[in-house]
C-alpha cells in the first residue's frame, strides 16, 4: 500500500515535469519566432460617431512609425513596444482610446476611438474650439466642419477651468448633446449666447425673438415647455408676436408681446414653425394652461390643452432680463435683438394645479 502511494506520487511528479518542460519548449519557440518574425504591415481602424473623421489613418501611422523610412512592414516584432505606442497615440487630442496587437499573420492591428465633438464654443476674445462629451477642449479642423450647437461669449480662454467657469462649461457639456439628439432644436436654435451673468439666451432660426433660458439647470424641462409654447401658441398666433419667450421659471412660460407684425410675415412664420414641429421627434406630452392677451384670442382658437383667460397684469411675473449686455466678442452669427420694456402685455403659460 505504501509502495503504491509512492509510485503514484512519482508518476504524477514525472507527468508534471514533462508538461512543464513542454510548455517551456513552446515558450522558447514562441520567443525565438517573435525575435525572428517581422511585421507584415499595419491595419488601422478608426471608430467615430460622426460621418466626418477628424483623424485619418496617415496621421495614426505617422505616430506608430514616424518618418518615411520607418514603416512598420519588415520591422522585427520584438522592436515594437505596444504600450509605448498606445501612450503616444493617446497624446493626440483627437484620440480617446487606442488598442494595438499583432494577429496570427503578424499584422499590427490598430484600433482608435476618436473623440466626438458635441459643441462649438466662441469665447469673448473671439477664439473658437470644440468640446467633446467629456468636456475636453478640441481644436478646429481646417479639412472639415461639423454642424453642432454654437455657444458664443464664453468668458474664458483657459483650457483648465475653475469655479463658475467650470460650472458653466459643465452645463454646456450636458445641454449640447440633448440639442444634438433632437432634430427640432438643431433646426430651430441658431445660436446660444452666454450673458455676463452666465445664463443662456437663444437666438432662433424661425422667429424674431429671444429665448431667455436662464442657467443650464433642468434644461430638458425648459426645452419641453418651450416646445409646447411653440406648438400650442406660436404655431397658431405666429412667431413674430413676441420679442422674448422666457422659460427660466419653473412650470411656466412668460412671453413678452411686441408690436403688430405684417400679416404675410406672420403667416409665413406660422407655416415655418408648423413644418419644424411636424419634422421633429415626438416630445413627451404635458398639460399646461395659458394666460394670453386679447390679441392672441382674436387670432387663434385655443388648443384643447389650453385655457384662455383674460389678460393678467405684467407685474404678476418678475422678469430679470432688463437689457442686453454688450460683449467684446466679434458679432455673433445672428444679431441679438433688444429686449423690450416690461410695460407690454405678456402671454403666460402656467402648469395647472391638481
Highlighted features:
Ubiquitin-like (UB roll), 8 helices, 15 strands, 34% helix
What would you report as the Rg, rounded to the nearest angstrom?
31 Å
Summing up helix and strand content along with how strands pair, one would put the structural category as: alpha/beta
Q: What is the average per-residue confidence, as pLDDT, rounded to a whole number?
A: 75
End-to-end CA span: 89 Å
Biggest sheet: strand arrangement: 6-5-4-7-8-9-10-11-12-15-13-14
What sequence of helices (H) and strands (E) makes up the elements?
A: HEHHEEEEEEHHEEEHEEHEHEE
Query: Considering DSSP H and I runs of 4 or more, what fraction of the residues is helical?
Result: 25-40%
- Overall geometry comes to elongated
Amino acid at each position: 500500500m505504501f509502495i503504491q502511494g509512492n509510485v503514484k506520487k512519482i508518476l504524477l511528479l514525472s507527468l508534471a515535469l514533462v508538461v512543464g518542460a513542454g510548455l517551456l519548449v513552446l515558450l522558447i519557440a514562441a520567443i525565438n519566432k517573435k525575435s525572428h518574425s517581422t511585421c507584415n504591415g499595419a491595419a488601422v481602424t478608426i471608430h467615430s460617431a460622426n460621418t466626418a473623421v477628424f483623424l485619418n489613418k496617415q496621421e495614426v501611422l505617422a505616430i506608430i512609425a514616424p518618418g518615411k523610412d520607418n514603416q512598420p512592414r519588415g520591422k522585427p516584432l520584438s522592436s515594437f513596444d505596444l504600450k509605448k505606442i498606445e501612450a503616444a497615440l493617446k497624446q493626440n487630442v483627437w484620440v480617446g482610446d487606442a488598442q494595438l496587437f499583432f494577429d496570427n499573420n503578424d499584422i499590427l492591428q490598430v484600433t482608435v476611438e476618436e473623440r466626438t465633438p458635441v459643441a462649438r464654443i466662441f469665447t469673448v476674445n473671439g477664439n473658437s474650439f470644440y468640446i467633446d462629451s467629456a468636456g475636453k477642449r478640441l481644436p478646429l479642423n481646417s479639412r472639415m466642419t461639423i454642424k453642432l450647437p454654437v455657444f458664443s461669449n464664453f468668458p474664458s480662454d483657459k483650457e483648465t477651468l475653475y469655479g463658475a467657469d467650470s460650472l458653466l462649461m459643465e452645463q454646456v457639456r450636458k445641454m449640447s448633446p440633448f440639442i444634438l439628439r433632437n432634430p427640432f432644436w438643431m433646426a430651430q436654435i441658431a445660436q446660444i449666447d452666454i450673458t455676463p451673468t452666465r445664463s443662456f439666451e437663444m437666438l432662433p432660426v424661425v422667429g424674431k425673438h429671444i429665448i431667455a433660458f436662464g442657467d443650464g439647470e433642468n434644461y430638458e424641462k425648459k426645452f419641453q415647455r418651450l416646445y409646447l409654447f411653440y406648438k400650442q401658441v406660436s404655431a397658431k398666433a405666429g412667431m413674430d408676436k413676441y420679442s422674448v419667450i422666457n422659460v427660466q421659471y419653473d412650470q411656466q412660460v412668460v412671453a413678452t408681446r411686441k408690436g403688430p407684425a405684417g400679416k404675410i410675415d406672420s403667416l409665413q412664420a406660422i407655416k415655418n414653425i408648423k413644418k419644424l414641429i411636424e419634422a421633429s421627434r415626438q416630445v413627451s406630452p404635458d398639460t399646461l394652461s395659458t394666460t394670453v392677451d386679447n390679441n392672441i384670442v382674436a387670432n387663434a382658437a385655443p388648443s384643447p390643452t389650453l385655457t384662455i383667460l383674460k389678460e393678467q397684469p405684467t407685474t404678476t411675473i418678475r422678469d430679470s432680463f432688463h437689457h442686453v449686455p454688450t460683449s467684446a466678442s466679434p458679432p455673433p452669427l445672428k444679431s441679438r435683438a433688444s429686449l423690450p420694456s416690461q410695460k407690454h402685455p405678456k402671454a403666460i403659460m402656467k402648469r395647472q394645479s391638481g
